[in-house]
Amino acid sequence: MRTRRGKETGKCGDNYKKGQWNVLCDYSGFEIASGDAKRTWDGFVVHKRFWENRQPQDFVRGVKDNIATPPHMTRPDPEDDFLTANEVTIDDL
């Protein structure tokens, strides 16, 4: 593959830097030099322009709530009041 200026691209040697090796960016799929690669918090190897800090909200811990009802706000259950047969008439409705 050639660009408009005639430079060849897409070969393995394009990213050669002395003392480094080529790796594949997990986000873009392009071959990059190892010096330009960074590892993300979830284990991907990416180009440094794709690297982001881990979201601070990942480290937030919840605070346990005290959900007990205060004693002065409780009352005993009322007694059950069952109706006998024929105690309610149509006129009562």
Tell me the number of strands.
4
**Helix segment count?**
0
What summary fits the major beta sheet?
2 strands, antiparallel
**Succession of helices and strands:** EEEE
How would you describe this protein?
With 93 residues, this protein is mainly beta. It has a domain of 37 residues. It is built from no helices and four strands. About 5% of the residues have low confidence.
Write the layout of secondary structure elements.
Layout: E1 22-24, E2 31-33, E3 37-39, E4 45-47
Antiparallel strand pairs: 1-2, 3-4
Task: Pick out its properties.
93 residues, mainly beta, two-stranded antiparallel sheet, 4 strands, rod-shaped
Short description:
The chain has 93 residues and is an all-beta fold. 0% of the residues lie in helices and 13% in strands.
